[in-house]
Amino acid sequence: MLLFSAVLVVVLIGIGAVGYGADWWGGSSPRTSTWVGAPSGVPGTPSGGAAAASGARLDGQGRRLFTVLGAGDVLVHPAVSEQARRDATRTGRPGSFDFLPMFGSVAPAITGADLAICHLEIPLAPAAGPFLGYPQFSAPPQLADGLRRAGFDACSTASNHTLDQGAQGVKRTLDALDAAGLGHSGSARDAREAGTPRIYQAAGVGVGHLSYSLNFNGLQRPAGKLWMANLIEPDKILAAAAGLRAAGAEIVVLSLHWGTEYQHLPDADQLRWVQQLIDSPDIDLVLGHHAHVVQPFEQFGEKWVVYGMGNQLARHSEPVNDNREGVMAKITFTEIAPEKWKISEAAAIPIWTDLAPDIRLVDLAAALADPTLPAANREVYRGAYGRITGYLTARGADQDGLKVLSRTG
After folding, report:
1. Which of these CATH numbers, 3.40.50.300, 3.60.20.10, 3.60.21.10, 3.90.850.10, describes 50-404?
2. pLDDT digits (tens, 9 = 90+) for 135-158
3. Per-residue pLDDT averaged across 21-41, rounded?
4. Which long-range CB contacts under 8 A does 357-361 form with residues at least 24 apart?
5. Comparing C-alpha atoms, which of 260, 303, 227 is closest to residue 3?
6. Most buried by CB count within 10 Å: which residue of 28, 127, 206, 272?
C-alpha cells in the first residue's frame, strides 16, 4: 500500500498562457495553487484562470464553492504530433511542437475550473525522439507544456501505456510534467515519490488525487519496484484514500483507467470495483477513462462516478464518431461545514475532434450557440452532441440531475 508522510509545502507560481494573450486562453490572471506533497526541489502545480485568483466563490447561502474538471484520454498518435509540428511552425517555432492550438475551443472551460485534471495516457520521449504511436507510444515532451498552457493543473498517469518505454519513460514523463508545472499521480520515479501524498491546494481547498490502471498491456513492473505504476487493487486504493484524508485532503478524487475499449456501457469489473470504492467515506469522485468512447455518469448517494470521458486528444488511424467524441466532467462541490464538502452539481461538457483542415477540439455547446457556424458543421456537431448525451445518461444520470451543457441551434 502507499505510505504517507509529512512533507514540505511547495508554493507555486502560475505560468499563465505563455506566448498567447489572456483574452485568447480565457483567463485574465493565473490561478495560484500549492502542491502539498511535492518532493523537495520538485515544482508543483500552478493554474490559469481568474476564478480562484479573485477569491472564493460563494453560493446564495454564503457557502464556498469549488469546481473540479476532469478530461479523458490524451493519446498522441503520430497525426497529432504532426499537427503540433505544423502549429509550431505557424507560431514561429519551426522544428518544435506546439500542442496548445488544438485545445483552443476547450481552453476556456479548462481554465474556468478551480482544479483541472487531465489523463496523460502515454509516456513522453526524449527531445529528439523517437516519437511513436500504437502499440508502444512515445510522445513529444512539448506535450506537457501544451497541457499546462491549455489550463490543466495535474494529470493522472496510470494507464495501460504507462510502461511502454520502461522506467526511463516513466522518469522522462514525470520530469517533463514537473518542468511544465503540472502535478501528477499514478506513476513514480522512486519509492519515496510513490509514498508522497498528492494534495493540491487550489482556491484554499486541499484536494487529494489518486490514479490507477486496470493493466499495463502485458508489461510487468520491475521486481521490487511495484511502486513505479499503480494497478487497480481496491484494498490498496481504499488505504491510499484514507491516507490522503489523514494527510489533510478535504476532497479526494480517484482517477481510474478501466473499462472495455469501444464499449459505451461499464463492464462487470467497473461495476464491481465502483461498488467497493464509492462507498468509502474517503473517496468523493471517480473520474474514468480508457475505453476511448463516452460512457455514462452515475450518481451514488451524494457522490458521482464518471465511467468514461472518451478521448480528449487523439487521432486514431481509423477515425469514427466514437473515437472523435468526448466529454469533460465539471463537478461543483459546496462546503457544508468547515472543510467538509459535498457535490452540489455534476455537469458534462461534450466535445468533438475536428480533423480537417486541422486537428482541433470543439466545445460543442459553445460552437452550436454560435449563429455564424456553417450549416455543414452544425449538422455534424448536433449529431455528436445528441449521441454523447445519450451515452452520458444511459444509467439514469439525467434523472439524478446531470447537467449537460446546453446548445442552441
Report:
1. 3.60.21.10
2. 999 999 999 999 999 999 999 999
3. 37
4. 358/83, 358/86, 358/87, 358/101, 358/102, 359/79, 359/80, 359/83, 359/102, 359/315, 360/101, 360/102, 360/104, 360/105, 361/102, 361/103, 361/104, 361/105, 361/106, 361/312, 361/313
5. 227
6. 206
Amino acid at site 305:
V
pTM confidence score: 0.89
Residue 302 vs residues 65, 81, 235, 345: alpha-carbon distances, Å: 16, 40, 22, 10
Beta bridge partners of 253: 209, 285
How many of the other CB atoms lie within 10 Å of CB of 345? Answer: 15
> Taking a C-beta distance cutoff of 8 angstroms, is the pair 330, 67 a contact?
yes
pLDDT tens-digit map of 203-216 = 999 999 999 999 99
- Quote the cell numbers at residue 32: 495560484
Q: How big is the CA angle at 171 (ends 167 and 175), to the nearest 5 degrees?
A: 175
Taking alpha carbons only, the member of 299, 312, 375 closest to residue 343 is 299
